[in-house]
Design a protein that fits this description.
The chain is α/β, with parallel strands linked by helices. It has one domain: Rossmann fold, CATH 3.40.50. Helix content is 38%, strand content 28%. It contains 8 helices and 10 strands. The strands form 2 sheets. Strands 6-7-8-3-9-10 form a 6-stranded mixed β-sheet, sandwiched between helices. Strands 2-1-4-5 form a 4-stranded antiparallel β-sheet, with helices on one face. Helix 6 links the parallel strand 7 and strand 8. Helix 3 crosses helix 4, helix 3 runs parallel beside helix 5 and helix 5 runs parallel beside helix 6. It is globular. The protein starts with a strand and ends with a helix. Bound molecules: adenosine-5'-diphosphate (ADP) (2 copies). One adenosine-5'-diphosphate binds next to helix 1. One adenosine-5'-diphosphate binds next to loops. This is ABC transporter ATP-binding protein. Belongs to the ABC transporter superfamily.
């Protein structure tokens, strides 16, 4: 599903060029649940943004579902992003002035889904996420865990093949974080959504099936969680 070949990303300032990703290679198959770990500034968010086509590499090739993303027009990239990729963030990024239901509905409006169908899809997801009673509340009236639930609902309402999560539990208490991780695991196992999460939490990383460690823009290790657990 995802194939990165010799990816480079750098930023130039007055005096020097600094590399965020160096000669980075990665393959991820459909249906995987991958955790990415590494120190602050290692390039994790940049990697996730390139995979989600929110950012472009300076060099290298990126194939997404066998399509050469590095050659696609901006318009095509937006289309790909809209149809196949869902994003969730550490700080939720909900729209404060919109209710829970309206937040979840937003991607469907961009996608051009008709109003009646949108309402039905949102109602269905609210029901599945046990949030029917909260549908008319605003984000500020919810706990962090509930806000992230809305973030996930919004990310999966358009049935993406790939869900990218940039520290989804970074702003949550550990019990709320655990609930979110259980939900991601369920979405992966029961609906086959491919998930890539960035996390600083060793325990939460193990909800994935594979852990990739990054330092200074380079891959340090890439191991199945089962192997890691055997080593303990
Ligand atoms: P960003 O991806 O927005 O650049 P960082 O990855 O630098 O942000 O950090 C995101 C959050 O994770 C911050 O709230 C920071 O306090 C926290 N964090 C950063 N490094 C660590 C770490 N080694 N262990 C635990 N938390 C960390
Ligand atoms: P991580 O998510 O692992 O914390 P990031 O991918 O956010 O790392 O950032 C990697 C490096 O790229 C950091 O050193 C950061 O300062 C740098 N960086 C990110 N965005 C920019 C930018 N727009 N301009 C210059 N440097 C940037």
């Amino acid at each position: 599903m995802i194939q990165l070949n010799d990816i480079f990303k750098y930023y130039d300032n007055k005096f020097q060029r600094s590399y965020v990703l160096k000669d980075f290679c990665l393959n991820i198959n459909e249906g995987e649940f991958v955790s990415i770990m590494g120190p602050s500034g290692a390039g994790k968010s940049t990697l996730l943004n390139i995979i989600g086509m929110l950012d472009v590499a300076d060099d290298g090739e990126y194939f997404f579902m066998d399509q050469p993303a590095h050659k696609l027009s901006d318009k095509k990239k937006v289309e790909f992003h809209r149809n196949y990729v869902g994003f969730i963030f550490q700080a939720f990024h909900l729209i404060d002035e919109m209710t829970v239901a309206e937040n979840i509905e937003t991607p469907l409006i961009y996608k051009g889904v008709k109003s009646k169908e949108r309402k039905a899809m949102v109602a269905d997801l609210l029901d599945r996420f046990n949030m029917v009673a909260k549908k008319d509340l605003f984000p500020a009236q919810l706990s962090g865990g509930q806000q992230q639930l809305v973030g996930i609902a919004r990310a999966i309402i358009s049935k993406p093949k790939l869900l990218l999560a940039d520290e989804p539990t970074g702003n949550l208490h550990s019990d709320q974080g655990k609930e979110i991780m259980k939900l991601l695991k369920k979405l992966n196992e029961e609906e086959g959504i491919t998930i890539i999460q960035v996390t600083h939490n060793e325990e939460f990383a193990q909800y994935g099936k594979r852990i990739i460690r990054i330092e200074d823009g380079m891959k340090k290790s890439d191991l199945p969680v089962a192997t890691l657990l055997e080593q303990v």
